[in-house]
């Protein structure tokens, strides 16, 4: 098959790592975990868990990252991207060369989970603002999947994604061995507890969250973008 570079653009505290596990369980797929993270931290110097480790282990030149993720490939090259890594000074003209999908989640749920690992948060940290910008950059020609919908019917959405990129679905995408992977970023000990223990997608559970102060402001600023993207999401 002709190679496909599948870029899944998510914010943090979504099902993005579980989806990476799912695709990595295919024999025809290799994955990359947040290839722009080291560049993002090097540029912003934000206080993220494992800041120095991430920069030391990753590539801080966005040009080198982009050259690698847009190069011709065989099979499926699954790329787990965080949209908050798309800082203003990073050019975006290379993004249309990928097969892009947006993965969204209710911002209140995202923020409530995010602040358990990093206390400081603004809307730009959770990526929905940038997802809206990315949707516009691609002229609206990009599928949007809501994590809540996906978790209610993971097989149906995986089948849809496989059809979208032109590969056959396999049951291997629904279950995987627990534990770490060599492909995990060095930040896994700070963020991946749930997925490291997982062997498949957890059933959807609605969450009641109560936010205050900066956390509430971040969620409220993200809400209009979430609602806009939610309206055009893939519905199965």
Low-confidence stretches: none
> What is the total number of structural domains?
1
Q: How far is the N terminus from the C terminus?
A: 27 Å
- Helix fraction, binned, reads 40-55%
How many strand elements?
5
Strand content: 5-15%
At CATH level 2, the architecture is 3-Layer(aba) Sandwich
Strand and helix order: EHEHHHEEHHEHHHHH
Q: Which sheet architecture does the biggest sheet show? A: 5 strands, parallel
The helix/strand class is: alpha/beta
Shape: globular
Strand order across the biggest sheet? Answer: 2-3-1-4-5
CATH topology: Rossmann fold
The whole-angstrom Rg is: 17 Å
Q: What is the average per-residue confidence, as pLDDT, rounded to a whole number?
A: 94
User: In CATH's first tier, which class applies?
Assistant: Alpha Beta
Number of helices: 11
Commentary on this structure:
- The protein has 236 residues and is an alpha/beta fold.
- It has one domain (4-231): 3-Layer(aba) Sandwich (Rossmann fold).
- It is built from eleven helices and five strands; from the N terminus they run βαβαααββααβααααα.
- It has helices spanning 16-24, 37-44, 51-57, 62-69, 107-114, 128-137, 147-152, 154-165, 188-191, 193-197, 213-231; strands at residues 4-10, 29-33, 76-82, 99-104, 144-146.
- The protein has a five-stranded parallel beta sheet, sandwiched between helices.
- Helix 2 crosses helix 3 (51-57).
- The longest helix is centred in the C-terminal third of the chain and has 19 residues, at 213-231.
- 41% of the residues are buried.
- The mean pLDDT is 94.
């Amino acid at each position: 098959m002709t190679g496909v570079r599948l870029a899944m653009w998510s914010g943090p505290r979504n099902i993005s790592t579980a989806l990476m596990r799912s695709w990595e369980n295919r024999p025809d797929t290799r994955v990359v975990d947040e290839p722009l993270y080291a560049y993002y931290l090097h540029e912003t110097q934000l206080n993220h868990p494992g800041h120095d480790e991430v920069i030391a282990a990753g590539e801080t030149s966005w040009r080198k990252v982009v050259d690698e993720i847009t190069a011709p490939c065989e099979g499926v090259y699954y790329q787990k991207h965080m949209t908050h890594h798309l800082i203003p000074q990073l050019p975006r003209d290379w993004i249309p060369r990928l097969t892009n999908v947006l993965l969204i989640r209710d911002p209140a749920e995202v923020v409530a989970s995010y602040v358990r690992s990093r206390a400081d948060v603004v809307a730009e940290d959770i990526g929905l603002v940038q997802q809206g910008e990315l949707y516009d950059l691609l002229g609206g020609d990009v599928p949007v999947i809501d994590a809540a919908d996906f978790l209610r019917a993971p097989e149906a959405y995986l089948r849809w994604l496989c059809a979208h990129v032109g590969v056959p679905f396999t049951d291997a995408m629904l279950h995987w061995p627990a534990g770490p992977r060599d492909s995990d970023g060095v930040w896994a000990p700070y963020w991946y507890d749930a997925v490291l223990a997982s062997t498949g997608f957890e059933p959807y559970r609605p969450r009641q969250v109560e936010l205050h102060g900066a956390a509430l402001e971040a969620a409220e600023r993200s809400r209009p973008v979430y609602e806009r993207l939610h309206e055009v999401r893939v519905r199965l």
